[in-house]
C-alpha cells in the first residue's frame, strides 16, 4: 500500500482516484492493521462479504479494474502489483501495467491501453450457474461464520470451492478462518504446488509499450 | 432490482445472535439483509421454505398481487396451473413457497438445513446486466471508520478499483 500511495500522489492531480477494497471476511480486525500502517490518502473500503469479488467475477487479489469518468469499465480484471516483490508468483513485471495506467490517465479513450467495447465484451462473459451457486454457498458460509457457527460454515465454503475451483479468494479466505490442513485437507503452499507451472495469476494481455527497445 | 442488489454493502449479522433462538424457525438472507422467521410453520415436513405473506414482504420486499409476485415495477407472474405450488391457505394464513419461487426466477439458493438458514443470491440477469452497458457494477462499502462510500461517488473521475486482502 505505501507504493500505491506514492503512485496515487503522482496522479491524483489528474482527475484520478484509487478505490481500494479489502476482501476480508474478518473485516476491520483483519484488514484494519494493514490500512492503519499504510494510512493512504485514497479510499480504502472493507468488504466483509467479498461483494466486489462477486460483482466483478474476480478470482484473485490484487485485481484491478479501470473505470472511466462515466462509470464505464475501460480495462477489466488484471493482476495489479505496485512493485516486483511477488514476481516469482506473477511472472510479470509491475511497471508496464503502471505505465499503462499513466498513459490512460493522460490520454483517456485514446490510450492504447483503453479496451474497445468489443474487446471488453470478449473478456467479460456471463457467469455460469455454477459460479452463481458458488457465490451463494460462500455467502451463506460467511453469514454462518459471523453468526458464530464457524464449523457449520466449512461445508458451505467447501461447496463454494468445488463449484468455483479457479477462485483463489474463496479458497484462501476460508482457509484463513480455520485450520486449513485440519478442515480442508490442504493449504496454500500445497495448492500452489499443484498448479505445477500453470500461472497463479492469469497473464495480462497488454499492448507492448512503444518505447521498449526489443 | 439491480440497484438493490448492487448497493448492498453491509450485512446485518447481529440480529440473529441477540434474539432468543427458541422462537426462530429460520433465517432468510435476501439482498444481503437478514430476516428471522418466527411464525410457527405447518410445513415442518417440507424441504421447501414456506413463509407467510408478511414474512415475504419483510424478508424480500415482494408482495403477492393478482398479476404476480411484485416488488416496485418488477413483477413475476405465477404459472396459472402451478399456483398451488406457490400459495397455500392454512386457516387464516396464506403461505408462500419462497424456495419454489426462487427456482421459478432462476435465483440461486444456499441452504443450511441444520441451522435453517437460507441465502438467496442475485438472479443471473441482475448479476450479468452490466455486460450490456459495460457500466462498472456499483457497490457501497464502509471504510475503517464505518463511513460508507459508493463507487458511484467517484463519477467524473478516472478510477482504479483495486482489491486486496489480509490473507
Detailed description of the structure:
The complex is a heterodimer of chains A (214) and B (167). With 214 residues, chain A is mostly helical. Chain A starts with a helix and ends in a 19-residue tail after the last helix. With 167 residues, chain B is an alpha+beta fold. Helices cover 23% and strands 32% of the residues of chain B. Chain B contains seven helices and 13 strands. In chain B, the strands form four sheets. Chain B has a four-stranded mixed sheet, covered by helices on one side. In chain B, strand 1 and strand 2 form a beta hairpin. Chain B is globular. The N terminus of chain B is likely disordered. At the A-B interface, strand 1, helix 2, strand 2, helix 3 and strand 3 of A face strand 9, strand 10, helix 6, helix 7 and strand 13 of B.
Please sum up the structure shown.
Chain A has 214 residues and is mainly alpha-helical. Helix content of chain A is 49%, strand content 12%. Chain A is built from eleven helices and four strands.
Proportion of strand residues of chain A = 5-15%
* Helix coverage percent of chain B: 10-25%
> Mean pLDDT across all residues of chain B, rounded?
89
Largest sheet of chain A, order of strands side by side? 1-2
- Helix/strand-derived category of chain A reads mainly alpha
User: What is the ordering of alpha helices and beta strands of chain B?
Assistant: HHEEEHEEEHEEHEEHHEEE
Amino acid at each position: 500500500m505505501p507504493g500505491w500511495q506514492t503512485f496515487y500522489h503522482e496522479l491524483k492531480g489528474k482527475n484520478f482516484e484509487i478505490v481500494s477494497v479489502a476482501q476480508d471476511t474478518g473485516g476491520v480486525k483483519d484488514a484494519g492493521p494493514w490500512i492503519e500502517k499504510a494510512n493512504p490518502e485514497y479510499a480504502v473500503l472493507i468488504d466483509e462479504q467479498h461483494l466486489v469479488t462477486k460483482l466483478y467475477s474476480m478470482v484473485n487479489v490484487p485485481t484491478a479494474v479501470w473505470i472511466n469518468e462515466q462509470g464505464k469499465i475501460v480495462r477489466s480484471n488484471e493482476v495489479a502489483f505496485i512493485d516486483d516483490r511477488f514476481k516469482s508468483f506473477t511472472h510479470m513485471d509491475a511497471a508496464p501495467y503502471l505505465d499503462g495506467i499513466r498513459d490512460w490517465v493522460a490520454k483517456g479513450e485514446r490510450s492504447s491501453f483503453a479496451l474497445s467495447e468489443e474487446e471488453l465484451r470478449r473478456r467479460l462473459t456471463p457467469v455460469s450457474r455454477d459460479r452463481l451457486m458458488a457465490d451463494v454457498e460462500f455467502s451463506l458460509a460467511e453469514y454462518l461464520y459471523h453468526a458464530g457457527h464457524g464449523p457449520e460454515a466449512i461445508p458451505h465454503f467447501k461447496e463454494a470451492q468445488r463449484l468455483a475451483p479457479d477462485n483463489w479468494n474463496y479458497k484462501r479466505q476460508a482457509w484463513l478462518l480455520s485450520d486449513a490442513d485440519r478442515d480442508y485437507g490442504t493449504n496454500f503452499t500445497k495448492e500452489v504446488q499443484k498448479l505445477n507451472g500453470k500461472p497463479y495469476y492469469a497473464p495480462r494481455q497488454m499492448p507492448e509499450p512503444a518505447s521498449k527497445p526489443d | 432490482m439491480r440497484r438493490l442488489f448492487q448497493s448492498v454493502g453491509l450485512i446485518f449479522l447481529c440480529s440473529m445472535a441477540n434474539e432468543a433462538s427458541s422462537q426462530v424457525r429460520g433465517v432468510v438472507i435476501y439482498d444481503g439483509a437478514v430476516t428471522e422467521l418466527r411464525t410457527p410453520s405447518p410445513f415442518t415436513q417440507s424441504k421447501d421454505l414456506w413463509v407467510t405473506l408478511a414474512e415475504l414482504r419483510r424478508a424480500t420486499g415482494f408482495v403477492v398481487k393478482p398479476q404476480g409476485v411484485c416488488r416496485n415495477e418488477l413483477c413475476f407472474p405465477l404459472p396459472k396451473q402451478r399456483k398451488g405450488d406457490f400459495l397455500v391457505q392454512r386457516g387464516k394464513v396464506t403461505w408462500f413457497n419462497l424456495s419454489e419461487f426462487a427456482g421459478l426466477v432462476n435465483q440461486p439458493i444456499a441452504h443450511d438445513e441444520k441451522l435453517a438458514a437460507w441465502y438467496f443470491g442475485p438472479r443471473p440477469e441482475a448479476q450479468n446486466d452490466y455486460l450490456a452497458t459495460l457500466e462498472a457494477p456499483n457497490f457501497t462499502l464502509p471504510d475503517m471508520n464505518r463511513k460508507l462510500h459508493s463507487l458511484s461517488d467517484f463519477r467524473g473521475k478516472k478510477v482504479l478499483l483495486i482489491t486486496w486482502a489480509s490473507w
